[in-house]
Amino acid sequence: MCDNKKLLLIFVFITFMISQNVLISQEALSNESTSNLSQGNDNEFKFGAIKKVKYNLENSGNWEVTTAGDRIWNLKLSYAGTTSLNVMFDHFFIPKGGKLVVSTSNIKEAFVYTFEKNPVSKKLGTWPLDGDEISLTLYEPKSQKGKAKIEICQVIQGDKKVAFSSAKIISERTNECDIDAMCDVDNETINVLKQRLIHSVVLINIGFGVCTGTLINNTRNDGKLYLLTANHCLGDSNPAFWSFRFNFFNDANICSDPDFRTFSDFQVVNGAKILARNAKTDFALLELNETVDPQWNIEWAGWNNKNEIPEISFGLHHPAGNPTKLALDYHDLLTEEIEFRGEATRVWTLDPDFGGWDLGITTRGSSGSALFNGKGEIIGQLLGGNAQCLENFDNDRQDHYGKFTESWAISVNPEESLMKWLDPDNTGVQTLGMLSEERKFDGNSIKLFPNPIKNEILFLNQLIEGSYTIYNMQGVVLLQRDKAFFSSIDVGSLAIGHYLIEIFDTNGEKVVKTFLKTI
Questions:
Q1: Which residue of 96, 111, 200, 355 is most buried, as measured by CB atoms within 10 A?
Q2: Is the separation of the CB atoms in 119 and 289 below 8 Å?
Q3: Helix or strand run (H / E) with residue 5
Q4: Distance of alpha carbon 255 from alpha carbon 172, whole angstroms
């Protein structure tokens, strides 16, 4: 184990090396070939093109040796004009004590991979980072010399400006048809349900495109990381290369200011395996390979296996990879038989006679998102449809969802149906509630920035569910907000001076911070 002084020196050295202009070797460049490799179909939202490469520790980048005998390898990938970059490793292993840092060129955003994050499959795909240049820096201890294995097989070059490639400031607006999931609707039951269920919604990066998935509970209530999505998102891709982002939703300020920009932390895990899939009802059930940080406050959605027609239904999804949106229908769903990919299948359909969705819309990137009944139970997943936002207006067309009841026991083969995985003990229950992983409130981890603040918006380094009160130094309450999700606070109305802020979680736990408002 390294002592603190040595760790500091390593960090400073790695940071310095990342900032240098480390070029790709000409040999590696000659190994490139461009391909728009198809790993799914046109229903997922595609944000980039695949470039096949053969980069490894021998033919690419540069090695440096520290005075202590440790080794540091640097590789910079730069593609002018791209909007984001992410890579696929077809062989990935970090030895004990080692570390791989994948960062933007300015090192403001980064992912760190250690021995503990080594995938069993030895395959890994990174989350897209904003910009046309990323740096990879590997630290290999002297005692582990030669044990690291890094082989990059694909670089995905973003060709669209997308919100999900940054953790800092995201531009959320897609079109006028979108309803942000953080905004209340005229139904208090739905408001309460979605406040919990947004923590079950997952943005899936399939490499060059995105879909939506939902964490789903099983009858053992054991917190297995089962994710329901659409089979068509899989195509012929390997989910071992996929990555999954949790809690990607806006600050509630978006509801009063549609152009508000907000902070959303990177909460990403890598890799999954297929448990079951069926093309007929278009479901896929995955199990995530990596554990999830308990501080993320995730939720597992429940489900309903009764063939009941809900009077109200809603979806939570990531259209075009944007922060979570809501689609809501106040009318009875239809059960229809449609032809899907050459097969007749029974689906839930929004009634076109009532104009499809009453609020919100789905689009590419929404594929695989769950359909919930009025109790917040999953009853299907988005298969496809004709709903679109045309010139900022809903076209009033229907969407189709693969029915949960059809997928439940559609085959005796457990790899083609849901029953074995979601009711492993064959209890026969037909409904199951949500499962929560409550996050312990850690006031010491909450940071305010910028501080001192000259601007109107004070940001927090994490999303808070709870309330806050701001006082002047005489104890007078100046600003207050209750029962909300927030990662920023508008302090534009405050005069120059020092202030106290009390932040509470939903259990009443409190932390007090100070900040300074300047000119």
A1: 200
A2: yes
A3: helix 4-19
A4: 11
Answer for the pair 347, 393: CB distance below 8 angstroms, yes or no: no
3-state secondary structure of 139: strand
- Bridge partner residues of 136 (DSSP): 75, 102
pLDDT band at 398 (very low <50, low <70, confident <90, very high): confident
Q: Residue count of the chain, please give it.
A: 519
The one-character DSSP state at 456 is S
* Residue in 178, 172, 198, 433 with CA at minimum distance from that of residue 328: 178
Tokens of 304: 């309903």
User: For residue 183, is it left (φ>0), alpha (ψ between -120 and 50) or beta?
Assistant: beta
Kindly give, in sequence order, each residue whose CB lies less than 8 Å from that of residue 141, ignoring residues fewer than 6 positions away.
70, 95, 96, 97, 98
User: pLDDT tens digits, residue range 405-458?
Assistant: 999 999 999 999 999 999 999 999 999 999 987 666 778 888 888 899 987 888
User: DSSP letter string over 338-379?
Assistant: EEETTEEEEEEE--GGGTS-SB----TT-TTPEEEETTSEEE
On the CB side of 77, CA atoms within 13 Å amount to: 30
Please answer whether residues 274 and 416 qualify as being in contact, where contact means their C-beta atoms are separated by less than 8 angstroms. Answer: no
**Angle at the Cα of 469 from the Cα atoms of 465 and 474, rounded to 5 degrees:** 160
How deeply is 344 buried, as exposed, middle or buried, from its count of CB atoms within 10 A (0-12, 13-18, 19+)? exposed
Distance of alpha carbon 205 from the chain centroid: 8
Query: Cα(first)–Cα(last) distance of the chain, in Å?
Result: 47
Residue position matching structure tokens 């300047």: 518
Other C-beta atoms lying within 10 Å of the C-beta of residue 97: 17
Tokens of 128: 């897209």
Instruction: Give kind and range of the element (H or E) at residue 110.
Output: strand 110-114
Answer whether residue 90 shows pLDDT above 90.
yes
Q: Are strands 431-432 and 477-490 parallel, antiparallel or unpaired?
A: unpaired
* Strand 268-270 to 272-278 pairing: unpaired
- Give yes or no for a contact between 510 and 443, defined as CB atoms under 8 angstroms apart: yes
pLDDT tens digits, 22-68: 333 333 333 333 332 222 334 578 999 999 999 999 999 999 999 99
Element (H or E) spanning 421, and its range? Answer: helix 419-422
